[in-house]
Design a protein that fits this description.
Elements (H helix, E strand, L loop, with lengths): L1 E5 L3 H13 L3 E5 L2 H10 L4 E4 L2 E2 L2 E2 H11 L4 E5 L4 H9 L4 E4 L4 H20 L3 E4 L2 E4 L4 E4 L2 E3 L3 H11 L8 H9 L8 H15 L9 E4 L3 E4 L3
Parallel strand pairs: 1-2, 1-3, 3-6, 6-7
Antiparallel strand pairs: 4-5, 8-9, 9-10, 10-11, 12-13
Helix pairs in contact: 4-8, 6-8
């Protein structure tokens, strides 16, 4: 598997490179928006680790560009820790948002989990169908009433988890631990709230009155199937 790091801090690049290569992953580095455009256009990646503040532009803009052509998982790794920044990063297609300073072991756990989940979904050969939603697991495509809809990698994995557990109440902690396979204490529950809201806008007929992904007060969420 190949990872692209988009970061301009040399000391951080060196530390990340050592840890990631030690796990057996291939690695490319881009330090600017311009370098990213050139590298990403020529190669296929399994994961992108992206800083927000770059010398010639914003990581948010890079994320938007990538999402137009790819569902590759994206982890924001940045010092921009304002709530508005986190929400924006997730809303435009980021799969995770980690703020600096961070624990390297936690980052590696998230990297391994996202790559493992992504690989498992790519290897699936079945189809999920319910509530007018069809997920073709073999090629990662989602359809609503026969029309294809675009989901980020995180939204896609969340939808599959719901559809694989029909009419079962899933707590926020369970969802987060299943999606990322790491201690949920390291993950802000607001992340899940953003994912749920964003997914509802794409699959619900009326997102303000959801009938597919239903909130069970005090317990969690449920994929409701009649």
């Amino acid at each position: 598997m190949k990872i692209l790091i988009i970061e301009d801090d040399l000391s951080l690049i060196n530390g990340l490179s050592f840890a990631i290569k030690k796990q057996g992953y291939e690695l490319d580095i881009a330090r600017t928006v311009l370098e990213t455009d050139a590298i990403f256009a020529d190669k296929k990646y399994d994961l992108v680790i992206l800083d927000v503040s770059l010398p010639d532009g914003s990581g948010f803009d890079i994320c938007k560009k990538i999402r137009k052509i790819s569902k590759v998982p994206i982890i924001f790794l940045t010092a921009a820790d304002e709530e508005t920044d986190i929400i924006m990063g997730l809303d435009i297609g980021g799969d995770d948002y980690i703020t600096k300073p961070f624990k390297l072991a936690v980052l590696m756990s998230r990297i391994n989990a996202i790559l493992r989940r992504s690989n498992n979904f790519n290897q699936a050969d079945t189809e999920l169908n319910a509530n007018g939603i069809s997920v073709k697991l073999l090629n990662g495509e989602v359809y609503k009433n026969g029309e294809k809809i675009d989901l980020t990698a995180g939204e896609y994995k969340l939808l599959c988890m719901f559809m694989e557990n029909p009419n079962i109440v899933l707590s926020a902690d369970r969802i987060l631990s299943k999606l990322w396979d790491c201690n949920e204490n390291y993950i802000d529950n607001n992340t899940l709230t953003v994912y749920i809201r964003r997914l509802r806008t794409k699959i619900e007929d009326n997102p303000s009155k959801p009938t597919k992904i239903v909130t069970v007060r005090g317990m969690g969420y449920k994929w409701s199937v009649l």
